[in-house]
Amino acid sequence: MPEAPVISHRLLVSPQRWARLRALPEHPLLNAAAATLDRLAESWAANQEICVDETAHNAHLVRARHAQARIVSLLVQYGRTGDRRFREAALDYLRAMGEWEYWSWIAWRERNSDPNAIFDLSYGENSLTLALAYDWLAAELSPAEREMIIGIARARALQPYLACNGVPGKEMWYYRSPDCNWNTVCNGGAGTLTLALGEACPESRRVLELVEEGIRHYFEFMQEDGAWPEGIGYWGYGHRYGYYYLLSHERATGKAHPLLERPGSRATLRFPLLFSPNNVPASFGDVNHFFPLPFHYAAAERYGMGDVMAELDRRMLASLAEDAHALEGSDSWPSVAELLLFHPGESPSEHSGRQWPCVATMRGLEWSYLADQWPQPRLYASVRGGTTEAPHTHQDLTSLFVIVGEERLIENVGVDDYLDTTFGPRRFELYETSAASKNVFLVNGVGLPHPATISTAPMAGAGWEGVWLDTTTAMAVGSPVRLSGRAVLMLEGKALLVLDRAVLQHAALAEQRWHTFARLQSRRTSALVRGKQERLHLAFAANVPARLKRGLGLPTHPPRDPDAILR
């Protein structure tokens, strides 16, 4: 076997964990990841063309992710094999990055090729890619190779970051954002690059000072339970870059970072698991999707959270059992390579952490869940309280998902595609973001407005437990409502009860909606939702004249199958 490369390792990956690549522990996840990486690395070393749809939303960001997946994967394969083909291919990709005229889709659309014009998500992701490449190769780079990487880093990352965020009062909008993934992707990417380069770049000290100030607002915003307002999809994206930076900071300095000492920074590692039971997403906002990313292992290992690592293992192994290629996904994330680096090497006991409550509300965020049991609930509901005043939110207050086993049978309709209107002033005219596509209570055809805020309170009695959402103040805007609210209750772990109450000033039309993509049978006062394996029975009652009707949703993208609606 060729001689192992000499690696720098200032950042998150320790020399010991890098050396482990040569003799991986016996574990089914590591075995599957190694086999997948063997195939991907050969393909990406042989064909270095990155093909993206240039007409698609944020095409330059998609390209950045493809490049990161390939460079990180090739360098990890180099660490495993010592085969310099993979090293040279990774450096070729880095050279190509340096030659891209535009790093930003936003700047490309404005035809502004000045590298200092913006520092956006693409810059943040490319910065992390450069950081890992330099950190892992620094000890063996030739003078020309070192000059190439440092030159790209300074001209295309650190100097643009300073141009966009270095003047007090004129920083980009995300710089101190407490609740948006742009903060950690941009600040975290630049910060991790600075930690890797250190004294090799004169910009490093100032960039690090700015990053520390900007990123703290993100981590200080999280309450003690670590809940995240953008939902579980953007939790994975934003937290990946945030933890890469903070964990790398701890390794580079040898000191605990105060932001990682906060209770919310620890507790947040459970948040996406609590809102994706049995790996079925039940979160709110634009990206209701969750599959474990390997940084999650690294962060959980830092805190000794065996319950989190065990649950990550359980979910990933279940996905592998269902699909032998589940770890591969797409080539837009280096997850297979990172799994080889970050997996602890053995499966921790799921009992090595605290028990998760069956009914809980995320304080501050006001999202709730009700489960009959953990870690594998048979019946589960997530409930949307709190505020819509956060990025990526929908007009979905009081809505809920219902999951039976491993199937989501009642669901809010989510956003399929990102369009110009998705983030434009007419966003809430889209079916998928409006109250019309949510499991909510409507009065005279409208639900809760956007923006709006509602409070959540716990409720409990003999054999039942749940939450009460007070919607009176928000619902009264432009409607005859004098008092309104919704209770969602778990009954002896066997059934869910949803009670909607409205007291009106005068006669009005009231409607409750339930959406599903499963097969639906309805009768006069009941319905049956059939998934591939599971079933859910619904019974309806009212204290005023009422009837049950069926409808179909109106997806923005015409080829999409519509949702069935119980009205």
Number of domains: 2
| Assigned CATH superfamily of the largest domain | Chondroitin AC/alginate lyase
pLDDT < 50 runs, ≥5 residues: none
| Alpha carbon gyration radius | 25 Å
DSSP helix fraction: 25-40%
CATH class of the largest domain: Mainly Alpha
Strand-pairing-aware structural class: alpha+beta
The average pLDDT is: 94
The side-by-side strand order for the widest beta sheet comes to 1-2-3-5-6
The appropriate CATH architecture of the largest domain is Alpha/alpha barrel
SS element count, helices: 16
In short:
The chain is α+β, with helices and mostly antiparallel strands and 567 residues long. It is 38% helix and 16% strand.
Structure description:
By secondary structure, the chain is α+β, with helices and mostly antiparallel strands. It has two domains: 15-342, Glycosyltransferase; 359-566, Beta-galactosidase, Chain A, domain 5 (Distorted Sandwich). The protein is built from 16 helices and 18 strands. The strands form five sheets. Strands 1-2-3-5-6 form a five-stranded antiparallel beta sheet, with no helix packed on it. The chain has a five-stranded antiparallel beta sheet with strand order 4-8-9-10-11. A hairpin with a 2-residue loop joins strand 5 (400-404) and strand 6 (407-410). Helix 3 runs antiparallel to helix 4 (84-99). 47% of the residues are buried.
